[in-house]
Amino acid sequence: MKRFSIGKLYAWFNSQQVIFWIFVVAISLPNFALAFSERVPLLTKVCNVVLPFSVFWFLFTLTRKPGKMLWILFLFIFFDAFQIVLLYLFGESVIAVDMFLNVLTTNSTEINELLGSLIPGVATVFIVYGATVFFAVRSLLSKKTLGAEFRRRQRRYSLVGIAVGLAVMACCCAFTSGFSVLHHIFPVNVTYNMVQAIDRQISKSRYLATSANFTFGATATHHAAEKEIYVIVVGETARAMNFHIYGYGRPTTPCLEADSNVVAYGNDFTQSNTTHKSVPMLLSAVSAENFGDIYEQKSIITAFKEAGFYTIFLSNQRPNHSFIDFFGDEADFTEFIKDDMPPEANVLDAALLPLLRKHIKACKSHKIFAVLHTYGSHFNYRERYRSEDSYFKPDSVMDVKFKNRHMLLNAYDNTIRYTDRLLGNLMAMLRQYGGSAVMAYTSDHGEDIFDDERRLFLHASPNPSYYQLHVPLIFWASDDYIASHSAEWQAIAENRDKAVTGSKELFHTMLMLAGIETPCRTDTLSLASPHFTPSPRLYLNDHNEPSPITY
Questions:
Q1: Distance separating alpha carbons of residues 365 and 220, to the nearest angstrom
Q2: Confidence label for 106 from pLDDT (cuts 50, 70 and 90)
Q3: Helices 188-205 + 97-105 axis angle, to 10
Q4: Which residue among 53, 387, 439, 539 is least enclosed by CB atoms within 10 Å?
Q5: Are 377 and 236 in contact (CB under 8 A)?
Q6: In 238-310, where does DSSP find H-type helix?
Q7: Contact between residue 454 and residue 91 where contact means Cβ atoms under 8 Å apart
């Protein structure tokens, strides 16, 4: 009886008709999942299930062996696998343009760290679509084929399904506000997003040519003999709500709070929850409103160079073929300190300071501008600080799950405390350097750490949360700078409680603090100006359109 059952089961799975239905259901799985995850009208959900399912149903009737059609449609199997993992990670939304770009700008170490936290989702994909590919091979190797009558019958039924799907889609277009096939029907929307990602990559690959003739026309207004150094520290994945200086209940920022020259802005929101867009906005005159101009413009580094400053760019992140690389290469000295190291190398942010000190000492100019791009609080949090810097314990966690949030939060808070020490040491270095010195620190974006009922984790989700957008913005100046440029520093202090968008305003603020004039500087966007005017809060959505922040 057992042999008969196993043999019967084997024969059943070896049937081309069974394989046919396995493929139709497997390739449509994300559509069913999205019907539960997406916050869209019921009619849109029905359309997104019925129409794609029926189209795939029809397509699999076009070949005698369904395995052949599966290989023809293999790109959609890839989309399906990617989509299932995305839903496991974020709980909603389709594969965004930025998701495709993140794959291209994320190094192997980050991918391995991320996949380690997604084992259930990856395992599900491997089982479902690994089995699907297995059956596709068996279908092709089998001598059996789908019968002509079966194919004709299924074709008729699928055409009826397509007609129903088209009718529902017509109703969506007529009665559902904002409905769009390009945005709401999977996998049409994902295919469209991939094309958009390719288009952006092509535009980015031409950047050196399209920006070659750009100039800021920048000039310096401070006294030529004044000794000056300005430093921008770009943090990674640091959210403001975990900084004690903003009222957090844990002592994560003792160094910042101990320095009376620190001015902390607690109401700053980034304009992007992705590194590859937020950092370029921080370092240039572009913002969510005019992000398309980034292909023709250069960064603040070039503005300082034109004004006579020696410029330095140091990064504890690996080159990733993004605008960050292009902007970094504008400096007189550029170094990605992990560039020649093996992928598994884990270098802490503190390694940036000896390099900066070395170049400051070796520099013959007494006017210096530096950008430090840190690794900050990027997951895996436990890898961002030394064991002896483990202040909040326990902080070792193997599985990224809601039940382990306390340990994850301990490790995350340790990264903030480590960043605080880094900034404290940098301020001490700049104070020792003497003369006019200014440091600005902010982060590219924040992070979700299972903070509410949605139980979201990480960042770069297509629909950014408050935790991903609310970031720190901190200024520090030496006594000499405050004495020599009291008006600018007074404005910095007076604007600290206003609603700001550092992604848009840091560029103008740093130029004004340094006394650099250029037609690209807008003083109403400078926090160092008494005329600073808060702008409507916007973030750059997946299709590079400015969208209002409603938090």
A1: 14
A2: low
A3: 50
A4: 387
A5: yes
A6: 254-258, 275-282, 300-306
A7: yes
Query: With contact defined as beta carbons under 8 Å apart, do 209 and 513 qualify?
Result: no
Residue 10: count of CB within 10 angstroms of its CB: 9
**Structure token pair of residue 463:** 């629909």
Cα 146 to Cα 126, 132, 140, 155, 497, distances in angstroms: 27, 17, 12, 12, 70
> Encoding tokens for residue 64?
């005698």
Q: Hunting for tokens 């129409």 — which residue is that?
A: 51
- According to DSSP, the residues that pair with 122 across neighbouring strands are none
Q: Which residue bears the tokens 């040519």?
A: 209
Q: 378: closest CA among 102, 121, 119?
A: 102
> What is the Rg, in whole angstroms, of the alpha carbon atoms belonging to the chain?
27
Provide the pLDDT confidence category of residue 550 given band limits of 50, 70 and 90.
confident
Residue extents of the structural domains in the chain? 2-203, 228-548
Burial class, 243, CB count within 10 angstroms (exposed 0-12 / middle 13-18 / buried 19+): buried
pTM greater than the 0.70 cutoff: yes
- From the list 95, 80, 99, 100, the residue with the least C-alpha distance to 31 is 80
* Residue 77, φ and ψ in degrees, nearest 5: -65, -40
Q: Is the pLDDT of residue 1 over 50?
A: no
152: buried, middle or exposed (CB in 10 Å: 19+, 13-18, 0-12)? exposed
Phi, psi (5° rounding) for residue 37?
A: -90, -30
Residue 107 pLDDT exceeds 70: no
DSSP 198: H
34/40 Cα distance (integer angstroms): 10
Task: Residue 387: name the closest of 379, 395, 398, 399 by CA.
Answer: 395
- Strand runs (DSSP E) across 106-261, as ranges? 219-220, 228-235
